[in-house]
Every structure is written in C-alpha cells, then in structure tokens.
Amino acid sequence: MTKNEIKKAVSKRAILGFIYGVFIGQTILIIESLFMRDGNFYAVSASLLELAGTKIAAVIIQYFLTGIIGLTFASTTVIFEMDEWSLLRQTITHFIITSIVMYVAGFLCGWFPHTVGSTLAWFGVFVVVYLIFWICFSLYYKNKVKKMNEAL
Fold this sequence. Notes:
This protein is mainly alpha-helical. It is 80% helix and 0% strand.
C-alpha cells in the first residue's frame, strides 16, 4: 500500500470504527442494565460521574471514549496490510496501540477499580481476549488463502 492508500483506508475505517464503537458501547450498557433487573439504565460508572460532575457530561465523555476505542480498533487494522512488516511486528504494534487506548478509556470511564490488582486483572483479560481474536482472525485468513490457492 502506498502512503496515500494507507491514509485513505485509515480515514474510512476510523469513521466507521467510531460509529461501531459507540454502538457496541451502548449495547453493552443496555445489556448490563438489563442484568441489574431493577428497570434502570446505568449509563455511566459512579467514578466517571464524579470525574465529570454531571450525568450528561459523563455520558458525553463515555460516548466519545467508546467511539475512540472503535476508531482505534478499526483504523489500526491497516497495520496488518503493511507487507514490509513481519507478522510479529504488526501484531505487537497493533496490540500496544489498542491496549493503551482500551486501558486509558477504561480507566477514565471507571470500568474497573483504580488499583494495581484490578489493572493487572484488566490487562490479563485483555491479553486473553486479544489472543482469542488474533487466533480466530489468523485461522480465518489462513483458510481464505487456502481456498484462493485451490481456486488457482
């Protein structure tokens, strides 16, 4: 990919990723609120509410942070199309970028307690989930390449 093609792909994926991130974030909030079984919608954590000062400010902050998470995951997929990079370099770069964005957003939104133990637990869960997705995508693309080669 040329630099211009990369910029174009990142921009397009970023816009769609922001929308997907907000959608996924809101869907998770609805599901979590349903599990509370008290008929209330829990839009934000108490710590984000305290940080933001008002409920609407907290909702807006979380809205943009979930959008940024989606934007990051979507736009950084371009890394895996950089043929001059090894798969290891692509994966490490993608992992570092996405884990930092997820951690900062989760920290600001109050999705986990602000302790060393919970940070380590969060990071452990992130690594496991990342590995599961990485393995699934690797198997998917390996199968896709195999089918393309068979078609030739």
